Amino acid sequence: MDAPDDTRPAETLAELERLRSRTRARAHGGAWLPALGVAVLLLASALLYRSPFAAPTSITISHPYWAGLRDEQHDPVLSYVFWFVGIPLLFLATGFWYAWRARRLGLRVAWPVFVGTGLGVLILLAVLAAVPDRQLPSDALSSGPVGFWWPGLLTPLMPVAASVVALAWAERSVALAVAGGWIALLTAWLCGSDRLGYLPPWATDLLGGGSGSLGGELALRPGHYLVLMALPLVVFAAARALGTRRTNHRVSVAEVPGA
Asked: Distance between CA atoms of 246 and 253, rounded to whole angstroms?
């Protein structure tokens, strides 16, 4: 009597695990497009500021920060329209993208969570604040630190951050969760401080290696911070798109008879 072949169950389990991994990779391979869309929206919003990269000689700030960050914008209404039209258009394109992938691959992702979260926070923002008409004069920027200013969180960047975190949940991606948290953290710091890029005394002491400083300020403009926000999303989108291409190539090769 032949001895039982103990290698077959192990090979079968290994093959099943490979199939599961391949299915997960294909199911979540479309996350690169909405991530890239959010990054493009962030970078395009730099055009809403009067001086996105250069230091102005004077500045007037309107609140809420409809452009996104605490800086002078061309027109608050234009900024309002940019985000309240741009974000829904991004979600609409995302819905078509995932619907197309579901028909093509037969695999679904919980993308409505991404859309629902972003729209929900965006609507909440609209309820909490109307189109701004209050102005902060430029000499207000020269005042000392006043601590964290909670109304500064009334910015369209918060719905963007929340939607990225929701996308991370739908796509089971730690990298996207970090990217969403990074956007929220930068937004809270830049919009909750009394000056864009303000560093409290403990931070300047830590960076300078000394003690007893009065605080400082990073010499960066809104455009620079938007690039920093978008960079993790661009890296993720590039890496995920490349990984998806390789996975699809392996699947196509495996489906060829005799391969």
From this structure: 11
Does residue 28 fall inside a structural domain?
Answer: no
Handedness of CA 10, 12, 17, 21 (dihedral sign): positive
- Nearest CA to 28 out of 98, 99, 82, 126 is that of 98
H helices of the chain, where?
7-27, 32-44, 76-105, 112-128, 157-171, 174-192, 201-208, 222-254
Interaxial angle between packed helices 174-192 and 32-44, expressed in degrees from 0 to 180 and rounded to the nearest 10: 20
Domain span including residue 170? 33-244
> What is the C-alpha to C-alpha distance for residues 145 and 200, in angstroms, rounded to an integer?
8
d(C-alpha 73, C-alpha 52), whole Å: 9
Convert the pLDDT of each residue in 20-76 to its tens digit: 555 555 555 789 999 999 999 999 999 999 999 998 877 888 888 999 999 999 999
Say whether 135 sits in a helix, a strand or coil: strand
Partner residues linked to 73 by β-bridges: 49
Q: What's the sign of the alpha-carbon dihedral 108, 91, 72, 130?
A: negative
Task: Give the total number of structural domains in the chain.
Answer: 1
pTM confidence score: 0.80
- Domain-embedded: residue 88: yes
Classify residue 199 by its DSSP letter.
E
- Number of residues written out for the chain: 259
- Candidate from 36-50, 91-105, 106-120, 133-147 with smallest mean pLDDT: 133-147
Question: d(Cα 256, Cα 259) in Å, to the nearest integer?
Answer: 5
- The amino acid that residue 126 corresponds to is A
